[in-house]
Amino acid sequence: MWDKLRAYHKTVADRRFADMVDAERAAAFATQAGDMRFDYAKTNIDDTARDLLIDLLDQADVAGKRDAMFAGAAINETEGRAVLHTALRNLDGGPVLVDGQDVMPAVLETLARMGKFASDVRDGRYTGQGGQITDVINIGIGGSDLGPAMAVKALAPYHDGPRCHFVSNVDPADIGATLRQCDPTTTLVIVASKTFTTIETMTNARTALAWMREKVTDPGAQFAALSTADDKTAAFGIASDRVFGFEDWVGGRYSMWGPIGLSLMMAVGADAFHAFLRGGQAMDLHFKSAAWVENMPAMLALVGIWHNQICGYSTRAVLPYDNLLSRLPAYLQQLEMESNGKGVSMDGADLAVDSGPVVWGEPGTNGQHAFYQLIHQGTRVIPCEFLVAARGHEDDLHHQHQLLVANCLAQSEALMRGRSLPEATAKVADRFSGDELERQARHRVFAGNRPSTTLAYPQLTPFVLGQIIALYEHRVFVEGAVLGINSYDQWGVELGKELATDLQPVIEGRADATSKDGSTAALVSFLQKAGV
Ligand code: F6P
After folding, report:
1. Can you tell me which atom of ligand 1 is nearest the CA of 227?
2. Does position 92 have pLDDT exceeding 90, yes or no?
């Protein structure tokens, strides 16, 4: 199937797809899920390409794998685990069995405990030594940080709880700056770590504990923990009524729907958090039931596969024309690159095709004044994924929102249409002539024919945010299933962690660098002379 797709791509690679985009194509090359619309008409995918791409889904038995995931099978084969973040948003769904046990009662009980604790904090029934909690610091990294940090920012218009801060980096600059903004007597520290062993998180948690101890008689009482490791949270000194547990079938980068989302719940309240879960659940239902050609996560994944594995475009820009989603690209970097950045297939063989793409991006319109130059005129093609809301939350400034939307649509139009040499020449013909006219015009030519997709939605509500995040999660699932990789482990992060543990005594001067390569030893020596 890959060969067929590549062969077909060769036959259409040079055509100008811009010429194909009429109203009929716009209707046929778009999908709808709830009130969100995903448009991929501005790509070179036609009926034949789409049929061949959909054949990939059948060849990889994506439907069977999808059903196995929702049913609690251990599809994370290298760790022998189920993949059931969907159970965390299965609010009124039926039982979900793992090893014959229904996990839903425990999921719903934890959700209810989170709701009670969040409302106690928000309403002042749970206080710090100095009174009502004014600040919540979430200490976590990777999936224990990026999801809630992204979502708290995304749902800022709904934020009516305590201020939320996110500390992730072991760089003391991160925690130092955060602690200086908070009063320890009115601060709640949430230590978010699935394993409760991650060195950055545990180091920051101990720093926060020491900071609180200076002013608070019982600092442990102002700590909560989100983890799968009860023994370790107890050893840290956090009472079990402030420990919110989850199971190993929730992957770190898929965990914001459960306890790892506690800071989000503190910010926006339990009702809005539930609406977020319901949005995710709605996308689950769509993913499970829609035919492939109507299936938004499947089509989003196939467009990505077409661009990366077939066309050879190795990066993907995520460009939210929604400032509230400014952390979405960072969140997606982990979700997509930690999940599908693998060169080994499930059976241990080398991957026969390229792994997932490099994901990057910034909110529009900021990116327009920074890196869009390269997207429009650079030598590499970068597929762009635009996101845009019909309405923002600043009702008095709706005209500004309209300008934002115009910019978003203009960019995808410009990428597709480009500007030809005669058009560019006409633009400057009044200023130049002869050879100079051609030279000046050539700098103003846009090749065009550059693909993009647009995800449009009415407004970034908690429900819509849930739909968007679940959409991207399922896209990653489909892509991983087609590529034949395990999207749910992350062995590629281990080697660096081990070497950092080895290097720490060297940096501290307790061991010498003789076992290290020349470059590393020289850098250690330089940094030591400079005061490390
Ligand atoms: O090192 C990578 C990773 O394991 C991520 O997958 C995870 O989200 C992050 O570290 C944090 O892990 P934990 O929640 O266990 O602290």
Report:
1. 14
2. no
Q: Would you place residue 1 in the very low, low, confident or very high pLDDT band (cuts 50, 70, 90)?
A: confident
Expressed in angstroms and rounded, the spacing between residue 407 Cα and the centre of ligand 1 is 37
**Residue 475 resides in a domain:** yes
Identify whether residues 97 and 242 lie together within a single domain. Answer: yes
Which residue, by CA, sits nearest to atom 5 of ligand 1?
A: 142
Tokens coding 125 = 């029934």
**Ligand 1 atom closest to Cα of residue 140:** 16
Q: Which domain CATH number covers 499?
A: 1.10.1390
Distance of CA 447 to the CA centre of its chain: 31
Which residues are 412's β-sheet partners? none
Task: Kindly state whether residues 468 and 330 are assigned to the same domain.
Answer: yes
- 430 occurs within a structural domain: no
**pLDDT above 80 (res 282):** yes
Q: At what angle do helices 47-59 and 296-305 cross, to 10 degrees?
A: 100
The whole-number pLDDT of residue 93 equals 74
pLDDT of residue 408: 98
Catalytic residues: 338, 369, 497
Q: Which residues of 218-247 are buried (b: 16+ CB within 10 A; e: fewer)?
A: ebebbbbbbbbbeebbeebebeeebbbbbb
Q: Mind listing the pLDDT tens digit for each residue in 114-157?
A: 999 999 999 999 999 999 999 999 999 999 999 999 999 999 99
Closest ligand 1 atom to 260 CA: 14
Closest residue by CA, ligand 1 atom 10:
142
Residue owning the nearest CA to atom 1 of ligand 1 = 493
Residues 471 and 516 in one domain: no
- Range(s) of the domain holding residue 510: 494-529
Copy the structure tokens of residue 228: 């799968």
CA of 141 to the centre of ligand 1 (A): 6
Domain-embedded: residue 39? yes
Phi first, then psi: what are they for 278, rounded to 5°?
A: -65, -35
Residue type, 182: C
Confirm whether 413 is domain-assigned: yes
Number of domains in the chain: 3
Ligand 1 centroid to residue 242 C-alpha, Å: 21
- Residues 244 and 305 both lie in one domain: no
Are residues 312 and 383 both part of a single domain? Answer: yes
pLDDT, average across residues 414-418: 98
CATH number at residue 455: 3.40.50.10490
Residues 263, 223: Cα–Cα separation, whole Å: 13
Q: Residue 67: pLDDT band by 50, 70, 90 thresholds?
A: very high
Asked if residues 521 and 340 have their Cβ atoms less than 8 Å apart, the reply is no
- Say whether both 316 and 350 belong to one domain: yes
Residues 229 and 309 in one domain: no
Q: Is the pLDDT of residue 515 over 80?
A: yes
* Residue located nearest, by CA, to atom 2 of ligand 1: 493
The protein residue with its alpha carbon nearest to ligand 1, atom 8, reads 143
Identify the band that residue 229 occupies on the pLDDT scale cut at 50, 70 and 90: very high
Q: Which residues lie with the beta carbon below 6 Å from any ligand 1 atom?
A: 141-144, 193-195, 198, 201, 252-253, 338, 490, 493
Which atom of ligand 1 lies nearest, measured to the CA of 494? Answer: 1
Residue 478 and residue 517 in one domain? no
CA of 143 to the centre of ligand 1 (A): 6
